[in-house]
Structure formats: structure tokens, C-alpha cells
Amino acid sequence: MTTKVDGKNLHEINDGHPPPLIRTLRGCETQARAWCDLRHPLQVMVIRSAIPQSSATPTRTDSTPVSCLVSSKTSPGHGIGLSSDWTNTPTQDNQKNPYPPSSSSSSSPWPPPSSSPSSPSLLFFSLSSAAHRRHHQPTPKPPTAAAAATSPQLIQSACNATRFPAACASALTQYTTNLSAPLEILTASISISSHILTAAQLKAWKILESSLDNRNRSSAARICLEVLQNANLRQSAAAAALPRRRNKDARAWLSASLVYQYDCWSALKYVNDSQLINETMTLMDSLIMLTSNALSMSQSYDLFGDNVGLWRAPLTERDGFWEDGNSDGGGGGGGGGGVPADLAVDATVSKGDCGGRCYKTLQEAVEAAPDNGEKRFVVRIEEGVYEEIVRVPYEKKNVVFLGDGMGKTVITGSLKVGPGLTTYNTSTVGPDAHQAVAFRSDSDLSIIENCEFLGNQDTLYAHSLRQFYKSCRIEGNVDFIFGNSAAVFQDCLILIRPRDVAPEKGESNAVTAHGRIDPAQSTGFVFWNCTVNGTDKYVALYRKKPKVHRNYLGRPWKEYSRTVFLGCYLEEIVSAPGWMPWSGDFALSTLYYGEFESRGPGGSVSGRVGWSSQVPKEHVGAYSLQSFIQGNDWIPNSNS
Q1: Cβ-Cβ contacts under 8 Å for 63 (sequence gap 6 or more)
Q2: How far apart are CA 119 and CA 396, in angstroms?
Q3: What is the DSSP code string of 563-586?
Q4: According to the UniProt record, where is the region Disordered (predicted)?
Q5: What is the Cα Rg of the chain in Å?
Q6: Can you tell me the mean pLDDT for 371-395?
Q7: Pairwise CA distance, residues 205 & 198, whole Å
Q8: Distance in angstroms (rounded) separating the CA atoms of residues 176 and 197
């Protein structure tokens, strides 16, 4: 399936509650101006192609099988976008795109948090393959002051494990009592955060009500309403998971909640022109601090259980701390996982004459899927160009898209960065269109296999939660793999491509820009057995003037950025320093950039920057599929 977003198209997945459900994608290509957005938690999203490559498959520099292409090859000034957006995506000039999308198509504002929120979800191309139950958890409420007194010593010991112990102790003492066990303190901390989160949602609603004549401010408010609702879902799920000892899930979901809260704060930052917005940002500061504290406690609870005496503030690899590793499965752990091949078709979408036995649009097929279905609903998309925005609502589970192959099944749409839009919403390439996002994922437990993502700046936005990319081809030049997810890339081909403007003059390119904002977040980018090279055109340019073309494995988008390359082959285009700073010494003492057994002409570590690291062999297992994203629990075995 070729998923092009060309003109007005955008695709996004917004699914899931715990436990996970599987989504699958096969035979997909996203060319020219493509955008895929996977949104919502606790699902397995599997994107893969089992369709033989067509003659339209682009030339590549190795034999890696690619039959799913996600790309944003647009003419200048065009791109694709999403419905709603976050604002904090990296840009070439180290600035953030301040404005979310406007909602000119809607005459009425979103409902306030007290109403039943619609679950925004779009599907770019996705096949879904396994069903799990959905759990709806109410937002926890703080206990009343009438409860029995708690132990101040226990609270203080638990709060010492956070980054903001004074705020932690004050909040727990003020809002809760009758806390006699570590788990009760942890869940109370989540409850307090959720209470403030509800207040923040109401503030965002007031901002929207007062800003209908201001496109940028109303867009920021819509961002907040959307992401704070997502944060609420994640926190409720985390609170429900902890008593069942699903500690890794709870940490992943709290990590995502913190991402979304920061997204709201960042959106408001660029439209802070009123007292109401200033008050809301102050409230968001407190919310982020409280959520960070709950996240820190969840890490200690996962590591040390009820022994509060061992709890401590979050440490990172730079402090000499690695979590226990399990490297079962070899390179990346779980190399045999994949997507089922024998998927029975439930609905067909066709541009041709099918005698009334098929749908003419993908959206019609999606709407035909049962709500909260426990079985796969497989949609076969026949060859053709489909110009539409496809939305898979929250209640549509296990929807599977099957295309006819790269270059054959095409979904198109286009938007560009500008007032009312951010990188998060767009898929654009070119000097006038700014950043190019070809694919965005906010889906927990996502599997993307044998897919291709093509763009320039900001090609692949792995925004949040746990994701697995296997045997994919990812192409771009500036920060083209970015976000704050916990993502493992296994056996992938990473390619630098020339800039659109005066490429012969040289440039500095960064493959990754990870955005971890808190040391307790269980997020980072892990590359296992991947190859970093240039496209044929870029390599030709590089060899003419190698000194003016500088390429790096990554740079720190946020303070606790974490990226490791393990057993990867680095071609000559990778510059000797290996990594580049973002701005001055920002994050250089807090990031973790590591390598292990890098190979190839660019793999020599003798010239690496002093603030990068070599991963100790005994700790490599900490980045296995199982250890880093619990892959053995949700990545299915391939039968193809």
C-alpha cells in the first residue's frame, strides 16, 4: 500500500486501553507528501508488507526488502498534516514551531472535559491483528481529609525518591491521608496529579471559549484539550495497572502522560498573551512537577518494590545506572517477530467497478468496522490513489489495512507548516514548506515492519509510548527520527539524503533528536544492527567534497535525550565526532548517547565527542526488545 498524503490527506491511529491490541499494516507505501499518525495507547500496531515489491519501488543502496514506503516528497510549499497537534518538534534553526492547526471546518468549539470526549484517531495505513479487552478507568480522586492519619516518615521516604521532594510531601500531606503502604502513596500521587489535570482541562476549555476569533490561541487550546485527555487516559490506566504489578506498563503510560502535559505547556507558551493563559501555564508547571514525582516513584517501586528505604531519585546511564537487561532473542531480542500472513479480508476498497461489493473510500470501510471489535477487521485497499483523510475512531479496534504494494495503493493529502499548523500536523519537504513529517506514532506497542519513510527534516515522529521498527528504510537529513518514545529499530537502513537547496555547499545533518524531558521516563531510541549511509545522490555529493558534509548520529532535542547504536554499520559519511550538540552545552551533561561495537568506515570511536559513551558489554542487554519495551510480551511470532 502506498500511503501518500498529497493535498488534503492525513492518517492517524488512535486506539487502545490496557491490555494491548495488535494493529498490522501490510503492503503500504507512503510516497510524496505522506503522513502516518498512530495515536492512542496500549495497542500493538504492526505495520508490515508481505506484498512483493513493485517496479515502482525506489532504488536503494542495499538489498533490504522494503515494501512499505512512508514519504513526504512534496513540492515546496506543500505537505501533509494531522488533525490536532503538539507544538514541540525540533526545527533546523533550533526553534519550536509555535502554532497548532486551526479548526476552520468546525463552527463550534470542542466540548469541555465534563462531556464525553470524542477520541481523535486517524489511520494512515494500518493493519491490526490481535484483540484484547479495553478497560475504561475513571480518573482517580484524592481521598478526603477525614481518613486516618498517615505516616509522615513514610511519605518523606517515598518523596525522597522524586526530583521535587518538597512539592511531593506537601501535596501528599495536603490532599491525602491514610497512606500506610508504598503502593498507596504511589497511587495517591497519581490521583493528585489527575486531580490537577482535570483542573487544567477546564482551564484549557476556558481559553478556547475566549479565543474563537484567534486562530493560534484557539488551536493551542484544542491541543491542550486533546493531549490532556490522552494524559488522563494514560494516568488512569497506570493507576489501574500498579495493583496488578504491571509496573513496566504503568511507567510507560506515566512517561507518555508527562509528554502530553509538556505538549500542552509548550503550545500555550507561544500564545501566552493573556492572564488566563499565564494562570494555566502556572497550573501546568505544577501538574508537570506532580506527574514527574509520580513517575519517579513508579520507577523506584518497579525496581525496589515495597522497600522504600531503597527508593531513590531517578538515575541515568550517565550516573552509572542501568536497569537489569535481558538480551533473549539476540540482536535486539525477538528477531523472529512479525505479522501474520494469512489475513482474511472483511471489506474491500476499490477505485474500479466492483458491482457494489466494495467501498469507494477508506473512511466508509473504517466506519463499517464494528465498535470495540474483538476480532480483526481486515480492509483490502486495491490499487489506486485515494485522496482523503482517514480517521479511525477510538472505538474502532483491530482494523487492518492491506494494500496492493508500494507504488500501487496510494493515500494522499498535503498540508504545510505555518500559522495554525506545526510540524506535528504536516508532511512536507522543501525550503518553503519547512519540516517534513512522514509518519507519527503515539500508539503503544506498535510494530512497523518492512516499511519506508522518506522525507527531509523530521521524517519519522516516534512521539510517545513503545514502538518497534523492523527492517525499515528511513530517509531524511535533519533530525529525521525524533520524538520521546521508547523505540527499538532493528535491521533498519538509515539514509541521509541531499538538502533541497544548494546541497553541494555542505551541511550538518543529525539522524536522531530524542526528546526525553525527565530522567525517570522509560524512553529512548535503540538501534540494533542498523546501517547508516547516504542515498546514492548524497554519497556522490559527499565524495566530491567530504569536508563540507557533516553527518551525526544524533543531537539532544531535550535535556535527558537518550539514543544508543548497538552493533550498527556506519558508513564513511558518519563524521568522526559521531554526535553533535543542540545549542552550546545544552544537555551535554545529562543526555546519554552510546555505541556498542560500531562497525564500518564511520564506526571508529577514536574521534568521538567526550560526552558520548561506549555501552559496557554487561549492560547491552538493558536495550534488548524485552528489557527496553517488553517486546516478548506483545510482539507476535511471524508465520510468513
Answers
A1: none
A2: 10
A3: EEEES-EE-TTB-TT----SSTTT
A4: 1-20, 54-117, 130-149
A5: 23
A6: 80
A7: 11
A8: 17
Which helix (DSSP H) or strand (DSSP E) does residue 297 occupy?
A: helix 275-304
Domains plus CATH for the chain?
Answer: 152-319 (1.20.140.40)
Q: How far apart are CA 604 and CA 166, in angstroms?
A: 46
Residue carrying the nine cell digits 466508509? 364
Sequence letter at residue 29: E
Q: Using 50, 70 and 90 to split pLDDT, how confident is the model at 69?
A: very low
Instruction: Tell me how far apart the terminal alpha carbons of the chain are, to the nearest angstrom.
Output: 18
Query: pLDDT digits over 222-239, tens only?
Result: 999 999 999 999 999 999
Q: What angle do CA 295, 298, 304 make, to 5 degrees?
A: 145
Give the three cell numbers for residue 510: 543529525
Q: Which residues contact 134 (CB under 8 A, 6 or more apart)?
A: 16, 17, 21, 372, 397
Q: Mind telling me the catalytic residues? A: 458, 479
The span from the CA of 477 to the CA of 305, in Å, is: 44
The length of the chain in residues reads: 640
pLDDT for residue 122: 27
3-state secondary structure of 275: helix
Three-class SS of 175-237: HCCCCCCHHHHHHHHHHHHHHHHHHHHHHHHHHHHCCCCCHHHHHHHHHHHHHHHHHHHHHHH
Residues 6+ apart with CB under 8 A from 361: 349, 386, 388
**Inter-residue contact 233 to 257 (CB < 8 Å):** no
Rounded to 10°, the helix 275-304/215-241 angle is: 20
pLDDT, one tens digit per residue, over 302-346 is 999 999 999 999 999 999 999 987 544 344 554 556 666 777 999
User: Which long-range contacts does 306-312 make (Cβ < 8 Å, 24+ apart)?
Assistant: 306/181, 306/182, 306/183, 308/154, 308/157, 308/158, 308/161, 308/182, 309/157, 311/157, 311/158, 311/160, 311/161, 311/182, 312/160, 312/161
